[in-house]
Amino acid sequence: MIQLLCQIDTPDVPGWKRDFDSEAFERMEAGLTLLQLWRDADSRSRVLMLFEANDRARAEGWLRKEQGFGGPMQATFLETF
């Protein structure tokens, strides 16, 4: 199973969350299933997301699009073994 762990820093977490929620269909089309969403308890402006990536190529396309918006998103593909 491939998972995708993403981290983003945003000064407006509530605004980011509204946008994130409104893009659920795009993530589904990219083969991503949200497993967990965290807000950093210390930073409060850092959000971490864990997805199951059903199709890595489509997930990589989604990731390129998201990173193209200029946000400081970091991402790592993980494999369960």
Question: How is this structure best described in words?
Answer:
This protein has 81 residues and is of the alpha+beta class. Helix content is 36%, strand content 37%. Strands 2-3-1-4 form a 4-stranded antiparallel beta sheet. Strand 2 (32-39) and strand 3 (46-53) form a beta hairpin. The protein is globular and about 30 Å long. The model has no long low-confidence stretch (mean pLDDT 92).
Q: Uncertain spans, ≥5 residues at pLDDT below 50?
A: none
Radius of gyration: 12 Å
- Tell me the structural class: alpha+beta
Beta percentage is 35-45%
Give the topology string: H per helix, E per strand.
EHHEEHE
Shape: globular
Residues in helices, as a percent range: 25-40%
- Average of pLDDT: 92
Strand order of the largest sheet: 2-3-1-4
Topology, number of strands: 4
Total helices: the number is 3
Distance between the termini: 8 Å
Summarize the main sheet: 4 strands, antiparallel
Strand and helix map with partners:
Layout: E1 2-9, H1 13-22, H2 24-29, E2 32-39, E3 46-53, H3 56-68, E4 74-79
Antiparallel strand pairs: 1-3, 1-4, 2-3
Brief digest:
The protein is α+β, with helices and mostly antiparallel strands. 36% of the residues lie in helices and 37% in strands.
